[in-house]
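About this split. The held-out portion is used to measure sequence recovery: a designer receives only the structure tokens and must propose an amino acid at every position. Recovery is the fraction of positions where the proposal matches the reference. Here is one held-out target exactly as it appears in the evaluation file.
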């Protein structure tokens, strides 16, 4: 009998321990939990942390409510019937308060993304491409901005009621058809060559302007120098003219010059002697006595 009672007590302890574990539920950080009871989804989700007490008969489903990113690639046709490959990244998260709805409508968070997000994204890309006239227009900044805005608006409209919050759409890469890529690269090379030639022409023009400026400065300097020389020559000619006029009008000056000459001759025996008519307005030598004296000796 005692052995039987011991088994009963042990069973009760085990049952209490089991139920104790069942009435405490811990939800990890960044997650939300949804409970069901006999297949019926409970309306209120359980946020991160410890929850006590809870119904031990609950079945639990966990949803990661942190930000996630999916990447997709789609062939997008433009109005010129060319296919352009566009790589897109979509950042999203599960709306925790709507986790019970996700469980009811689609099941897991991954299935919600597969059912709602991915096909909507591809459809929006193809529809947005139909408004683009030419494939190369996908490289234009305004085209990419328009495409991004259209996709974001369309995704929010579809995903928000389904419990998915769209955060951002990013166009990672755009790959045009190969022949268009080659044509664009050739156009860029030609444009670069034109810019190079323009730069060379501008450099040559600048050099020529500098040469012209230098030549103009040299010419101006030469003209100023010539003007100075003309003015100096005119001044010297004027001075000589005035001296000659003064000499012609001043016989005393001629006599003084004659005396100075005689004085110099007297100091140098080898000097030549000239006799000058002092009464003449333009005195000229009358006789070269110095040469005659030398011959007489």
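Reference sequence for scoring:
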């Amino acid at each position: 009998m005692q052995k039987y009672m011991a088994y009963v007590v042990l069973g009760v302890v085990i049952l209490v321990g089991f139920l104790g574990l069942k009435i405490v539920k811990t939800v990890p950080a960044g997650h939300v939990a949804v409970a069901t009871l006999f297949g019926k989804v409970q309306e209120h989700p359980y946020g991160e942390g410890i929850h006590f007490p809870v119904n031990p008969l609950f079945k639990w489903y966990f949803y990661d409510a942190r930000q996630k990113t999916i990447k997709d690639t789609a062939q997008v046709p433009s109005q010129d019937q060319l296919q352009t490959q566009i790589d897109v990244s979509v950042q999203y998260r599960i709306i925790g308060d709507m986790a019970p709805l996700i469980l009811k409508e689609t099941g897991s968070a991954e299935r919600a993304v597969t059912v709602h997000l991915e096909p909507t994204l591809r459809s929006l890309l193809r529809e947005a491409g139909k408004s683009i006239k030419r494939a190369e227009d996908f490289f234009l900044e305004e085209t990419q901005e328009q495409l991004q805005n259209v996709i974001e608006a369309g995704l929010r409209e579809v995903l928000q009621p389904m419990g998915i919050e769209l955060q951002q759409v990013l166009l990672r890469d755009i790959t045009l058809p190969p022949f268009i890529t080659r044509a664009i690269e050739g156009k860029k090379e030609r444009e670069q060559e034109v810019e190079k030639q323009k730069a060379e022409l501008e450099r040559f023009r600048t050099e020529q302007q500098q040469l012209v400026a230098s030549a103009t400065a040299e010419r101006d300097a030469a003209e100023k120098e010539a003007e100075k020389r003309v003015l100096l020559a005119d001044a010297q000619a004027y001075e000589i003219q005035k001296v000659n006029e003064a000499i012609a009008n001043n016989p005393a000056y001629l006599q003084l010059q004659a005396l100075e000459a005689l004085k110099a001759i007297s100091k140098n025996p080898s000097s030549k002697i000239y006799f000058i008519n002092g009464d003449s307005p333009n005195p000229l030598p009358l006789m070269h006595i110095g040469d005659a004296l030398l011959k007489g000796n």
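Annotator remark: The helical segments are 2-22, 99-105, 109-129, 141-159, 178-248, 251-267, 289-296.
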